[in-house]
Amino acid sequence: MKNDACLYWQALNRALDAELAADDDVIVLGEDVGLYGGSYRVTEGLYARYGEWRVRDTPISESSFTGLGVGAALVGLRPVVEIMTINFALLALDAIINMAAKIPFMSGGQFPMPLVVRMPGGVARQLAAQHSQRLEQTLMNVPGLRIAVPATPQDAWWQLRQAIRSDEPIVVLEHELLYFSKGPLDEAAEAPPMHRAEVCRAGADLTIVTYSRMRELSLRAAAQLAEQGISAEVIDLRSLRPIDWETCLASLRKTHRLLVVEEDSRFAGAGAEVVATLAERAFFTLDQPPRRVAGEELPIAYNARLEAASIPSAPSIVAAAREICGQQPPEEKS
Amino acid sequence: MKVMPGYAQQGVAENDSALLSVTDKKRLLREMLYARRFEERCYEAYVERKIGGFLHLYSGEEACAHGVLEAARPGYDYVMTSYRDHIHAIKCGSDPRKVMAELFAKEGGTCKGRGGSMHIFDVEHRFMGGYALVGGPFPLAAGIAKGIKMKGGDEISICFLGDAANNQGTFHESLNMAKVWDLPVLYVCENNLYGIGTRIDRSTAVQDQYKRAAAYDIPATQVDGQDVEVVYAAAKQAIEHVRSGNGPYFLELMTYRYRGHSMSDSNAYRSKDEERSWLKRDPIHILRNRLIDSQDLTLSEFKDMDKAIIEEIENEVIAYAEQSPEPAVEDLEKYVLAENDPYVHGGAS
Fold first, then answer.
1. Closest C-alpha among B215, B221, B212 to residue B186
2. Closest B-chain CA to A189
3. Known catalytic residues of A?
4. Is the pLDDT of residue B3 over 70?
5. For residue A211, is it left (φ>0), alpha (ψ between -120 and 50) or beta?
6. Closest Cα in chain B, distance from residue A314 (Å)
7. What letter does residue B314 receive in the DSSP assignment?
8. Could you tell me the domains of chain B?
């Protein structure tokens, strides 16, 4: 099926539908994923099609329904656990970090862990501090986990299906503001490896490395930079563990300038790892110190103006890119 | 505070001892004695620094695992427990040599030296793991039970945990889900009265743990965990209930660990009187004396059995663990992730 304007949630829904249909061992677990159809409609229609044993509404018990998914994976099911928002995943970290990420290793390879944990996150619209967190850095530091961060409907389709088929524990971080974004979806197109980064805009003057919702902002910024004579290459990492360093390094050999754009807050955030590793591996390739445009070191405010000021915007990306490229920011306010 | 087992047995049939044949009882006696000697040998090996890290011994609690698993189908039913896990694994069918080699951190161990004492796993015998997070296995066992129920098998999921684990949120969350979905899971509470050094009356509002299952409308029984025949009889009923599709069951076994919580525990928080009172109800002695009283065993036969076990552990188990090689450092990165997973590495779609 080809669709030129698929919504992100629909692509995830199609992926779940396809895998539930293809393999009886695939099950979906989470709060309101069944009868209600999912908080962001991702599981819409699946309960009616596959029944309550395969699309299972759980009590509000994140720690235990995620742990239950781990147990089900131990006996060969392929559970897809939905955690309503990443903020609630803090209650499930015992199951994810202590159990799912450790059992294959601790057992000396006796048990695969075909578990997927999906969780929406990021800063959405005025959801306040307990619903606006970005916790990718917490999960990135856990050996044994993989983290997919699809930013487009096509990647959502590809990566969720790959995650379900994989025997590894994989966290799929979805961004709450992406669910109703539109993009093309070609279901028959061959998928790249799940962790392969995508050069989503070619350029010569600097490399912008980004992921998730910041892909869209970085592309917008790159278009504005082009009008100002700066040619930015934009790389969407697509995966935060592992990270496809080769694609980033190939780009830096061309541009010699690095800008990392992340919604994550700056200190010890995802971008810190990107900058550190690329600096280690490409120090003499770089003409300028690398830079990050990142979220501020703050809980997110309810007020929309404060909220917007806490995370990167297209203008803040443009300004940082111009500085790296030796140009003054235009129309500096005095 | 009950330090002596003076509680009522809930709902266990009369004449339980008739359920096990003399042959079975003698085998169980040998297995429990083997378990005791295995654990005490671990103690020595720890002192000799052959075993590292944390080591939690099961001495005193043998009747719990043996009584329950005797009534189950070891190797067929799925079993998991806490970090005090050696004996459960062995009763499920794990090779004691491999369990000891795992404690010795050797490549010949059940988990190739990656897990250690607290994390015995044996997929072949459906021993689904020892876990070091108190209360962590509650939901995992429910997940296994969901898998069994979806696949339509008649296995059951058995989760052994200590009394102190019941104060974790996962106890309540998991029992709730197990009941709502009528999952084939048996929760076995080995109530040894202490969470490390904190006695149950200092940590827990409701000290009879079986009563807490009522909050989730799960049938429950509390029995003497020192008498393997009583445990067996109660477990038989419980397992019958679960295997017949009636949903979860909660079995509380009153027991006592002779050693400290782990090897680093000086055991200073318990009175000598209390310890002595439990030693009088040693699970191995209870069964031994009963067999001697019924003239099915003599004391010298028992002593010969003990001697043979000690030699067997030394000559086979310890020798195997000693001789097994350490894991190669070149294999350091193995088993972190599934190797050559095509969906991750190869782009399969």
1. B221
2. B349
3. 62, 131
4. no
5. beta
6. 32
7. I
8. 2-323 (3.40.50.970)
Confidence of residue A329 (pLDDT cuts 50, 70, 90): low
B334 C-beta neighbours (distance < 10 Å), count: 15
pLDDT digits (tens, 9 = 90+) for A159-199: 999 999 999 999 999 999 999 999 999 999 999 999 999 99
Contact (Cβ atoms closer than 8 angstroms) between residue A323 and residue A293:
no
CA distances (Å), origin B29, targets B33, B167, B193, B287, B300: 6, 33, 24, 7, 14
- In this structure, what DSSP letter does residue B318 have? I
In Å, what is the CA distance from B252 to each residue of A282, B64, B80?
Answer: 61, 10, 16
Taking each helix axis from N to C end, the angle separating A153-165 and A8-22, rounded to the nearest 10 degrees, works out to 30
Give the tokens for residue A255: 């541009």
Cβ neighbours around A5 below 10 Å, total: 10
Burial B192-230 (b: 16+ CB within 10 A, else e): bbbbeeebbeeebeebbbbebbeebebbbbbbbbbbbbb
pLDDT tens by residue, A54-70: 999 999 999 999 999 99
- DSSP H/E element including B177: helix B169-180
Contact A68 B114 (CB under 8 A): no
The candidate with the shortest Cα–Cα distance to A132, out of A95, A88, A167, is: A88
Contacts of B174 in chain A (CB under 8 A): 61, 64, 67-68
DSSP string, B125-165: GTEEEE-SSTTTHHHHHHHHHHHHHHHT----EEEEEEGGG
**B93 touches A at CB < 8 Å:** no
Q: Are A248 and A242 in contact (CB under 8 A)?
A: no
ipTM of the complex: 0.91
The answer to whether the CB atoms of A191 and B348 lie below 8 A apart is yes
CA distance B5 to A60: 38
Write b or e for each residue in A228-242: b if 16 or more Cβ atoms lie within 10 A of its Cβ, otherwise e.
Answer: eebebbbbbbbbbbe
Instruction: Say what the pTM is.
Output: 0.93
The string of DSSP letters for A94-163 reads IIIIIIITTHHHHTTTS-----EEEEEES--SS--GGG----HHHHHT-TT-EEE---SHHHHHHHHHHH
pLDDT at position B273, please? Answer: 95
Domains along chain A with CATH numbers: 3-186 (3.40.50.970), 198-324 (3.40.50.920)
Q: What angle do CA A15, A17, A23 make, to 5 degrees?
A: 100
Look-up: residue for tokens 């919604």? A263
Q: Is residue A258 packed enough to be buried (19+ CB in 10 Å), middle (13-18) or exposed (0-12)?
A: buried
Nearest-10 crossing angle of helices B22-47, B299-312: 50
* Residue A39: exposure state from Cβ atoms within 10 A (0-12, 13-18, ≥19): middle
CA distance B327 to B296: 46
**Cβ of A168 and B341 within 8 Å?**
yes
Distance of CA B192 to the CA centre of its chain: 12
- The first and second tokens of residue A134, run together, are 């970005």
pLDDT category at B1 given cuts 50, 70, 90 is very low
**A30, β-bridge pairs:** A57, A82
Which letter does DSSP use for residue A190 in this model? P
What is the overall mean pLDDT for chain B?
Answer: 93
